[in-house]
Amino acid sequence: MDSGGSLGRLDPDATLDDAVALASESASAFAAALAKEPNAERLLAAIGIGSSAAEDLPFRELAFMLGAGGEPVVPNDMSGGGIFYGGPPNTSPPKLPTYSTEPSLDVASANELTRLSRHHVVALHSAKTTAFTHPYYRMAAQSVVASADVLTAEPLFVMLHRGLFSLGANASKAVAANLPWLHRYLAPHGDAGDRIIEEAAAGLNSYFPATRDLCFKFLMSLLPRLSEDNRAKAGDWIRVITHLKVDNFVWSNGEPIVPVGMFLSAFDLIRGEHTDLSEAELARYGAILDGDEAESPSPRQAVEMLKHYRASPKSLTTRAMGRFLSYDVGAIRADAVKTWLSEARASDQELLGRVLRDEHPSVADAALEGTLHGWKHLDDERRREVGRMLEAMANRPNDAAVMLSRLLEKFSDQDSNGSLPWSLFKDLLPIALRAFPQSFDIAEERLFHAVRASSRHLAPEDGLRLCEEWVTWLEREVHQGRLPDDYGLGICDVLLDMTRSRPELRFALVERLLAFPSTGPMLVFLCDLVDEWGTLVESERAAILRLLSSGRTDIHWLKAGAITRSAVPAEVATGTLPAGVELHGQAESLLAELPSSLVDAAVRLYCGTPQPLWWLGKHHPNSDTWRRVVLAIAHAPDHPLFEIALTDVADHGQRNEFEAIVEGLRNQVPERLFNFLLAHKAGRVGEWHRGAWDALLAAAPSSKVKEDWHSALCRLAPLALDRVTDLKFWLSEKGAVDAVLESLSGDLLVLKLLAALGEAASDVGLPLAQTLLGLVQHNPPRLHGTYSTIASVLKTTVGSEEVLQKLEVFRRSTLDQREKIKKDVLATLEPSALCGWVTP
Length: 840
Hints:
By secondary structure, the protein is mainly alpha-helical.
């Protein structure tokens, strides 16, 4: 406000009473006066943060915001604190946690609150709540926050945190509703802005559904300005907010509660789907919903009525539906929308407009789900009307995210009789795909299967439009530096299916695919097109041959893709290979006659290493030629691809093929083979290859080398073995077995004691637990499975809880040691580069 106004006329020594006298002229002046009375300023800020025009602030939550009542409980639905189902029916409903001590206002705060009430700044209600008496005073409270500096902002942030995660629904909802202006005023101070975003993200797991919705709305309003890391979380935020359904609610003082971290029985889950209202209550609440009364049923009554309307959707009237759309909980509105759209309706344009304007993603998801359920009941005009609404929703990024997920879930190749509305699919999918947020992940496998399934139900022209938007999405992903997976890149198979009867439609799209600058996508497209060579028309074949003779920097990768297919067309082989070279020749001839860059690319692509070659899904085609080439290289230690080829034989070779190679080379390169086997075992679970180990150990060049090898095996043991009994699968050479067993003396001592006691072990009780702990502390076992064995014996021993906790510390240390061993061994491997590869 203008400093020359009432603030300028305020005496520097003005009291709170003086400021109240000028209240109608300057909220800033009022706030400035409060600064001279810290208790009043602090109290005013807390009420401003913890209340809103719609929500009064209970005294209890005001006290909690000011520091009473212990620490807040922050639910964490995303990391395991979800809703748990199982066990017998609950005899009493789940309840919110309680404060560690009941919060109450201290004397100074209570006195200051009374004084503010006498000056009519706040009202004190009989329900033990308070609220500002005029919007002006709310502005004054906001002015207190706005005038904060980096030091005074911290107490305000603490109030925000405690209010958002208080156990009072009103306070929590109010703080969530106030997040926009709190962020605006506090963000300039240090890291407060980022901390508020973190608070809002945590608020998505609040016990209170309305708090979740308000936190989500706040986060989405800032999405374009959020950090890349936070934008990447937006997909998870949408999943959390749309996962919530009214059937999950439990109730506390009439407020819906999400039972985060609480146990519900399977009976509770089933019961939650059905109303427990009597016929008289249904009639009474139904009359209120249909009537002209200003007051609506409580949220709990509304949810019970929604359950009734699900079973009888035709009885849901336009007026009742309008009331449901006024509730502040998105899950309530969504449930109503799903029921409304599951039946044929008429003259509801106003309601459809309200549904369209509702930007909660659960509403869009419910609108689509309800329409899919009721589609068979709708006439053509109604289908067009609802379809236009859904198209407008699908054009909004957040709604597109949930609607695309729903489309890909519902439409699949399981619809053999065409019962799904594929015409709606072909209208909505391109829009949702175009609007899909760039930072979100698409279920690419579902996209592939859904669009492929649509080819049986859509005209080629309609299928082509789906593929065009798919390619546009791929272009956008690659431009953003992201590499889709093999399903996301599998569009060529689908495109050819779509246009099999009209191949002339697709050439422009094939040209777009063959113009991708990145090697990974281009490689997948090319391999898939070569695999379908007989399906391609002449112009498409010519375009591929031009590509294979182009001057792209990654041309050797593209040629490698073409010649490693299970069936290589003669035109492709002629256009790719040097004159006179035949793919069906001897492996050694191919290695000698092909350019080294082409051999390098072809072998790596065949083996799928390094990434992203495995990720792209074009490894290990049914090509006997390249299997023989890889096998030949695996016998040639001097070849630069020896380790890659040997790894492939170890993982995918025929029975005893790998062992035969090791036995044949053990006298030629023993140290190299030993280091290879160490690294190979470090990177895999199982995959023992005991025959190869024994053959190599028997050929150790000297006793010193064998001793060093035994030491290396002992170091690897905690990673290679889960339990001592696994050793028989790994090694049988006596010296190696003895060395490893000696290194596991701590494990053996404990296991021998338990074996000696047998079934009587669990009867020994606490003395055994303490004895085992002493043995572990003196000589800790190295295998994590040994600790699991101990825990299985002690878990029924009364009083052993403390011992088990201490043993768990040792077990976790073995897991940490496993990771360190793995990291150390794999660090000895030289990174393998993809020469000429264009990312992503």
